[in-house]
Design goal:
Blueprint: H1 12-15, E1 28-34, E2 37-39, E3 42-44, H2 46-53, E4 58-65, H3 82-91, E5 101-104, H4 115-124, E6 129-133, H5 159-170, E7 174-177, H6 184-193, E8 199-201, H7 218-232, E9 237-241, H8 262-280, E10 285-287, H9 300-310, H10 316-330
Parallel strand pairs: 1-4, 4-5, 5-6, 6-7, 7-8, 8-9, 9-10
Antiparallel strand pairs: 2-3
């Protein structure tokens, strides 16, 4: 059964009421996480993506992350996700750096048998397939939902899933994982068991702020931080900072008459961002837009302005880490793309 999407509607007229200058327009950016789709009443393809990315910030490249776009309508079930790779490459044929890389889907519950699927995805991706992600975010409370078709319980604990993840690592692909903070112990067990697998946590490791979880509650914040700290001890883990527009995070900017200013967003997000930076260090942290999902809560210009405000305490070299270098290295993207016109950015 397909459920109604928990993502907030995008209201362009509401977003257009936001007005602020672009901060540090010279900063190169690699948007490490976005989606594309063409759904009834909800179109976000290359043209819509480039309109957002051309709004003043210097976004040099981006990474597409799977969201069941363009699956094949026939053939073996396990091979149908090949259609997503084919669709995204077709949509982006005029914008080769957007996306410059793709995180695709292969059913890791196939265990060792997922190998031929991974090989087919790699071939279809013609060098742009960088990793794999499965739908794994699960919580028993129905109020905690971030996917139209929520994952069942136990995927991250499944032996077959672990075998599938091992096949991912053996092909030098990374694994993105979207899990709530209540599941981070399961992510830790997986990452610990597979030290050759690069595990990239999406959306700050899923700190919850809905249902039984109050955003900013000290006890819940500490639960998230403690679980994240254990993961950060594993050298094969990375983390993306973003996803604050997801309904499960608990923010309600969309309820206000005007879209939020970047200064408010930076203040709101500071405890989570500072914790991620403190635990992982800048070389294992990357910023993401999570557009168009987060676009229901704020605009693209304001989002990256907020990240730039939050990165003010960092050195120039550390800012390059979080805005592009960490993502480029994690996903195997050529760093020369992010050199400044006047010379190479600091290394």
């Amino acid at each position: 059964m397909t459920l109604r999407s928990p993502h907030l509607d995008i209201r362009e007229a509401w977003l257009a009421q936001g007005c602020e200058e672009v901060l540090s327009p010279e900063q190169p950016i690699f948007d490490a996480h976005h989606h594309l789709w063409d759904r009834p009443g909800n179109r976000y393809r290359a043209a819509e993506l480039m309109k957002d990315m051309s709004d003043g910030h210097d976004v040099r490249a981006s990474l597409y992350v799977q969201c069941r776009t363009g699956y094949r309508g026939n053939g073996p079930d396990e091979m149908r996700p090949l259609g997503e790779i084919e669709t995204i490459l077709d949509w982006g044929h005029d914008t080769p750096n957007h996306p410059i890389g793709i995180v695709g889907f292969a059913d890791l519950q196939l265990g060792d048998a997922v190998g031929p699927v991974l090989d087919a995805l790699i071939e279809a991706g013609v060098g742009r397939l960088k990793g794999i992600r499965n739908t794994t975010a699960y919580h028993a409370d129905p109020a905690v939902r971030s996917n139209p078709n929520p994952a069942p319980d136990g995927l991250l604990r499944c032996a077959a899933f672990r075998d599938g993840a091992r096949a991912v690592a053996s092909r030098n692909l990374s694994m993105d994982i979207w899990a709530y903070h209540t599941q981070l112990h399961e992510v830790h067990a997986l990452a610990h068991a597979l030290p050759d697998l690069t595990v990239i946590l999406d959306h700050c490791g899923g700190p919850l702020g809905v249902g039984p979880y109050l955003r900013g509650d000290p006890e819940h914040f500490q639960q998230w931080r403690s679980a994240l700290a254990r993961l950060a001890e594993l050298p094969n883990t990375r983390i993306k900072i973003g996803g604050f527009g997801l309904s499960v995070m608990g923010y309600d900017y969309a309820d206000d008459p005007l879209p939020p200013h970047s200064s408010r967003m930076a203040t709101d997000w500071a405890p989570w961002v500072e914790t991620c930076l403190d635990l992982f260090g800048t070389r294992r942290v990357m910023f993401e837009s999570n557009f168009p999902v987060d676009k229901g809560q704020f605009g693209y210009r304001a989002l990256w302005n907020a990240f730039k405000r939050l990165s003010e305490p960092l050195t120039d070299d550390e800012r390059h880490d979080v805005f592009w270098r960490s993502a480029a290295r994690a996903y195997g993207v050529e760093e020369q793309l992010f050199w400044n016109d006047t010379g190479r950015t600091q290394s």
